[in-house]
Amino acid sequence: MKKLLSAFTLMAALLSPLSARAQDPPDVSLDFFYDNLSGQGDWIDVANYGYCFQPAVALDNPNWRPYADGYWAYTDAGWTWVSYEDFGWATYHYGRWTQLDDYGWVWVPGYEWAPAWVSWRTGGDYVGWAPLPPDVEQVYEGSAITGQVDLQYDIGPQYYNFIDVRYIGEPVLRERIFAPARNVTIINRTVNVTNITYNKVFVYNGGPNYDRLNRYSARPIPQLSLQRENNFGGGQAATGRNFNHVNGNQLIVVAPTIRKSSQPIAPKQVKTKVAQPKIQRGWQGIENRAQLQAEMKKEDPKKIFAPSFQPQKGRRPEAAAVAPASAIRPNEPNNTDANRPEVNAVSRPKVRAAQPAVESNQENQERPLTTREQRAQQISQEQNQRVQQIEKERADRVQAAQRAQAERAQEIRDEGRPVQANEQQKAQAAEAQQGRRGVRAPEQPAAQPNPRSPEQARRAQQTSQGEVPRPPERTGVPEQLQQNTNAPGARQVQRPPQRARANQNGEAEGKKKKPSPDQENPNP
Questions:
Q1: Ordered per-residue pLDDT tens for the chain, 524 residues
Q2: How far is residue 97's CA from residue 281's CA, in Å, rounded to a whole number?
Q3: Looking at the DSSP assignment, which residues form a beta bridge with residue 61?
Q4: If 343 and its partner were Cys, which of 151, 245, 409, 498 is the partner (CB 3.0–4.6 Å)?
Q5: Range 28-61 burial, b when 16+ CB lie within 10 A, else e
Q6: CB distance 108 to 47 below 8 Å
């Protein structure tokens, strides 16, 4: 009996600390955001909004937008945004976003955790979401945020991120978001279906019907069980990483309770102060604002345009793979990091986006179409025809360019033939042309005899007088060349040294032969 009592006493001693911690969950103040986000961007003091956080990526990339780098998962708290950005654990689950005219997007911290603070629109082939402005939090006291949020808080088309409904299940949505210039056209084809509620336990993010979107999505929309951790103390040091994790089919999120302080708390470093901020509501560059808002007032969330293609073959609404609503209650605090399971942070998968086939609309054939839906179908068909026409014209231009390029290449090859062949062809063509016209080519003048040199004239005179002409000395240079070199202005030729030639008696020419005695005195 004593052993049994000792066992009960020991068990009570072990359980009492856990019960105490469960009854007194830790909470943190706004400096929890200040400390853990300081390495991810800058804090600025904005009038009427307080200290706002601006991510560094928003400064580096002017086209950056919130709720873009990540994907949607459906949990027991509704549509939950899973971010790939290190600051996303805070900025997409607490607080609101606004756009300043001279600074860009900034985040205003908040006190209530939610799967996502966005406004939803869907209809036809599109689905989109927009960050809620800070004005919504000022009036949010547990009341529902419904489909009139665009009109109540003046959310313009430029705030929305729209994608094709077929890509809602993809793990990377940033590359699927349409350019904001198309948002006005898409707004006219969609309906606001925002439905954010609070049931005294957690915030539930409603919105588009999951089963409907999952039928048309090329990939099944992920379903995860949400597990909320709030055992992070206020002294947690900045780690520069995303605190949220995906472990199997569980999404583990850091969601501490944020308490409101009686005294204002400031970050350690404030970059600048904006005394008179100019707020952009998403209507910049839009002229027909009043007309568009009038159309928004007529929207009916129960009348949503069907997509212009058939649902995915074999796709049925998937059974809920999430835990009951109590699963997102805060876990029992645990102050020891050693007991926390090691899980991988949310990382961007390297997958290739699926390319769903566009098929005809079957849902429209199941019920009568309204006039507005018929007009929407007609517009869609006209757009498809226009796209096909543009593609055909583009193909024709490509073929014409290829033919012109081939002809030009042949011309270049022809121009590269030898010039001599071209000259011969021209000469032959000229002769043929002259032959056809009967024109004779001009005759070349007869060659005139060269004039006699002085030496030739002297020899001719001696011959005529009966004298035997003496042959000229052979110098090894032609006679004609000798005459030319003596002419004025002629280039002097270096004559090579002459070698005396021997006669038949072996005596050199040029030396006078001695006469014999008989020859010396022919007449004694």
A1: 444 445 544 454 444 443 333 344 567 889 999 999 988 999 999 999 999 999 999 999 999 999 999 999 999 999 999 999 999 999 999 999 999 998 999 999 999 999 999 999 999 999 999 999 998 766 566 678 999 999 999 999 999 999 999 999 999 999 999 999 999 999 999 999 999 998 778 899 999 999 999 999 999 999 999 998 876 644 444 444 567 889 899 999 988 889 888 888 899 999 999 999 999 999 988 888 899 999 999 998 888 888 988 887 766 544 333 333 333 333 333 333 333 333 344 555 554 444 443 333 333 333 344 455 555 566 666 666 766 777 787 788 778 888 888 887 787 777 765 555 556 667 677 766 665 555 454 555 554 555 556 666 666 666 556 555 555 555 554 554 444 445 454 455 455 555 545 444 444 444 444 555 454 444 54
A2: 11
A3: none
A4: 245
A5: bbbebbbbbbbebbbbbbbeebebbbbbeebeee
A6: no
| Residue where the block lists tokens 């409904």 | 165
Report d(CA 117, CA 197) in Å as an integer.
Answer: 11
Asked if residue 306 lies in contact with residue 300, where contact means CB atoms within 8 angstroms, the answer is: no
Q: What are the DSSP E strand ranges found in 5-123?
A: 27-28, 41-46, 50-55, 70-75, 78-83, 96-100, 104-108, 118-123
- How far apart are the C-alpha atoms of 291 and 287, rounded to whole Å? 9
Q: Which residue has the tokens 């212009």?
A: 308
Contacts of 354 (CB under 8 A, 6+ apart): 170, 218, 219
CB 277 within 8 A of CB 47: yes
Residue in the block written with tokens 């600074």? 103
How many CB atoms sit inside 10 A of residue 19's CB? 11
3-state DSSP percent of the chain in helix, strand and coil, to 5: 35, 15, 50
3-state SS assignment for residue 332: coil
Sign of the dihedral defined by the CA atoms of residues 130, 135, 137, 143, in that order: negative
Q: pTM higher than 0.90, yes or no?
A: no
Cα 58 from Cα 512, distance rounded (Å) = 119
Question: Would you list the domain boundaries of the chain?
Answer: 23-358, 368-409
- Structure tokens, 199: 């049931």
User: Can you say how many angstroms the Cα of residue 100 is from the centroid of all Cα atoms in its chain?
Assistant: 26
